Design the sequence.
């Protein structure tokens, strides 16, 4: 079983509300299946919509952490071996060491520590 799951939440160009529903269901699924880290591809707003999914979903991450659904999270811009939360997630899901977005400052992704 993989400790890392990747989802493309921007697929189908959902509204923010639909993306939030998808995120909620996916986090619940990860809890049930023992997934430690969820990588979310939400895009960065290059379609001219101003990054609505990116900014809207990232606000939700803090709520999820406050409610105990997440241990932490890191934006793609932060995802680095020099970022403490990223290092915690890499320890929880070692396959992240080979993730294509490590050290790439990708604003179109986020990482959630589910464990």
Sequence:
């Amino acid at each position: 079983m993989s400790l890392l799951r990747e989802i493309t939440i921007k697929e189908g160009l959902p509204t923010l509300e639909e993306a939030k529903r998808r995120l909620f269901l996916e986090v619940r699924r990860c809890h049930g299946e023992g997934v430690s880290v969820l990588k979310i591809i939400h895009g960065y707003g290059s379609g001219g919509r101003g990054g609505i999914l990116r900014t809207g979903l990232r606000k939700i991450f803090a709520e999820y952490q406050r409610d105990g659904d997440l241990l932490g999270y890191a934006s793609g811009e932060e995802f680095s071996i020099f970022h403490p939360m990223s290092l915690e997630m890499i320890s929880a899901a070692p396959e992240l060491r080979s993730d294509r977005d490590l050290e790439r400052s990708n604003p179109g992704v986020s990482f959630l520590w589910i464990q």
Observations:
- The chain has one domain: 4-113.
- Residues 70 and 114 are 5 Å apart (CA to CA).
- The chain has a mean pLDDT of 93.
- The domain at 4-113 is CATH 3.30.1370.110 (Ribosomal Protein S8; Chain: A, domain 1).
